[in-house]
Write the structure tokens for this entry.
Amino acid sequence: MKPLKLAVVSAGLRQPSSTRLLADRLADATRESLADAGREVDVHVVELRELATDISHHLVNGFPGPRLREELQAVTDADGVIAVTPVFSASYSGLFKSFFDVLDEGALTGKPVLIAATGGSARHSLVLEHALRPLFAYLRTIVVPTAVYGASEDWGTAGDGRTGGLAARIGRAGDELAGLMAGRRAVTRPTETVVPFEQQLAALRSA
């Protein structure tokens, strides 16, 4: 059986980055859960801070450079995606949003996605529900039920009775993503119909 493919998108800007740390912990949890089910997984990490210039160029000229093209293809080909962003102004970062803006339309359709975010305070944890979940619903992905927010005070604590500790949330989210990756059906992509430019121009003139 071929290994599954997991793409991990981290929008952390610093090095070391708590966003990258959370992304790695989620990837490990997913890998372990898949291993328990007898499935291998190839993990590919996409560090957006290294692609910032390429993403900006793509937004301006409409074409990805070679490196960005490879990373976009890795996400498109993945069986599952982990998407982690730092919180800025109560939402995802501009770099995070820009990366998903330049993905081809329909590239994530039907794909399971685990969403996560990091911030300095737990008061921004609802960013997962009012910003990230709607974004990935719009992209027609299957968002796993457990989204993970990591505030500074979460690292190394046991959490409370309602939410559990960060480690417990990571484990639960990894299990959910692994289950969807192992059991999901293949997505049949619609065939794109390309209308020649001359026909488009003629239609505009006749309108």
User: Anything to note?
Assistant: Residues 28 and 174 are 8 Å apart (CA to CA). Confidence is low (pLDDT under 50) at residues 185-191. Strands lie at 4-10, 41-47, 80-88, 91-92, 112-119, 142-143, 148-151.
